[in-house]
Design goal:
The protein is an alpha/beta fold. It has helices at 5-10, 31-47, 49-55, 57-71, 84-92, 111-124, 141-150, 171-181, 200-203, 269-285, 287-306, 333-341, 376-385, and strands spanning 19-20, 78-81, 102-106, 127-131, 153-159, 184-188, 207-211, 223-227, 245-248, 252-255, 311-313, 323-328, 345-346, 348-350, 365-369. The chain is 39% helix and 17% strand. One of its GO terms (molecular function) is transaminase activity.
Length: 387
């Protein structure tokens, strides 16, 4: 079954106002998410925050199963975290790096992650090594396999979909190689959860971080971390509180034995309930149907842009994602964004040179990222808005 686009748009109030092509930044939330967040916040204002959390405890707890079902995980392997960056950080900084350990990553790595690599490398004496791309622009699997065979690799860490160039990395193939060599595998799925069909068992990752605000269509200030049950006890979070661990008075503590060791007690409770609603909404539509719709729309947009004189489409990869990046001759990306915004079309500006180890990245490009509630008319509005 395909997506009922008319219903999806009716569920999305923002569609009446804008052609929203900035879903890789923050998607428009559907009505069930809006209502879940608003209703819990309203309850907080009338009976109190602690009391509202107690009254809605089942809705809070539902989050774990809802998100786990979305990615093929188990509920005890999921932690609620306030954003994807913090989820990724909690996993990465929990790894016991030692001098000489090797960290393998990609040319298109996100800058926040790259900064963390360098910090740990300086503090622990680890080494960060970048695997080259293949002819399609994705991670070269033969080069990765050769580096793993050399030994000494503590972690393979990469993004599923980079923030700026449309490609989809071969994450399941990477997982197979990591399992063969007994190496930890951390996947940044910030742009792929709610966008592509994911199964952590098929991918073979040990840890996966994601956000709520992008393709999952959840609230801002929400995210989650998946940690495979079999390795969770080998990872000690960089900080703990009374949710992550139990205090054994007067001078001891015991860390939880599930993924919630990466949580903190204080949290955006309405956001957690809203993120569960977003996961339920995506699951009800069907992730395979979402992926088909999103990638199909993006392919249409690439064809439309490629036929426009002066426009250069920059996307890479054999099977591109829903993220489309391009430039317009003689016009700065910020000017293109402003021209589109003036016509109620939302796009963003990506800065490839500041995200990744690829020295050939451009300073800036226009990024249009589609979702299943977008239409061909939305794409035509963008083309009409180009200078």
């Amino acid at each position: 079954m395909g997506i009922d686009v008319e219903k999806a748009r009716a569920d999305t109030p923002g569609c009446a106002r804008v052609a929203h092509l900035n879903n890789a930044g923050a998607a428009l939330p559907p009505a069930p998410v809006i209502e879940a967040v608003a209703e819990h916040f309203a309850l907080e204002t009338t009976i109190g925050g602690y009391e509202a959390a107690e009254q809605n405890a089942d809705a809070v707890e539902h989050f774990y199963g809802a998100v786990a079902g979305l990615i093929g995980a188990r509920a005890d392997e999921i932690a609620y975290v306030e954003n994807a960056t913090r989820a990724w950080d909690m996993a990465f900084y929990a790894i016991p790096f030692a001098e000489g350990d090797r960290i393998l990553t990609t040319t298109s790595e996100y800058s926040s992650n790259a900064i963390a690599y360098q910090q740990v490398a300086a503090a622990k004496g680890a080494r960060v090594e970048v695997i080259p791309d293949d002819a399609n622009g994705t991670l070269a699997l033969d080069a990765l396999e050769a580096e793993l065979a050399k030994g000494g690799v503590r972690l393979v860490s990469l993004n599923h979909i980079p923030t700026y160039n449309g490609l989809v990395n071969p994450v399941a193939e990477v997982g197979r190689l990591c399992r063969e060599h007994g190496v930890l595998y951390l996947l940044d799925a910030c742009q792929s959860v709610g966008h592509l069909a994911l199964d952590v068992a098929e991918i073979g990752c040990d840890m996966l971080s994601a956000t709520g605000r992008k393709y999952l269509r959840g609230p801002r200030g929400t995210g989650f971390l998946y940690v495979r049950r079999e390795i969770v006890r080998t990872l000690e979070p960089p900080f703990l509180d009374l949710t992550a661990a139990e205090w054994k008075a007067p001078d001891g503590f015991e860390i939880r034995d599930d993924a919630r060791r990466f949580e903190t007690w204080e949290r955006y409770v309405a956001g957690q309930i809203g993120l569960a609603a977003a996961a339920d909404y995506a699951s009800a539509l069907g992730i395979a149907a979402i992926e088909e719709r999103v990638t199909g729309l993006a392919a249409s947009l690439r064809r439309m842009l490629a036929g426009r004189p002066g426009v250069t489409v920059l996307d890479r990869g054999e099977h591109p994602s829903g993220i489309v990046t391009f430039t317009v001759d003689g016009h700065a990306p910020e000017a293109v964004k402003a021209a589109a915004r003036a016509r109620d079309v939302n796009v963003s500006v990506a800065q490839p040179r500041t995200h990744g180890y690829d020295p050939h990245g451009l300073d800036a490009a226009v990024r249009a990222s589609v979702h299943y509630y977008n239409t061909e008319e939305d794409l035509e509005r963008l083309l009409a808005a180009l200078p």
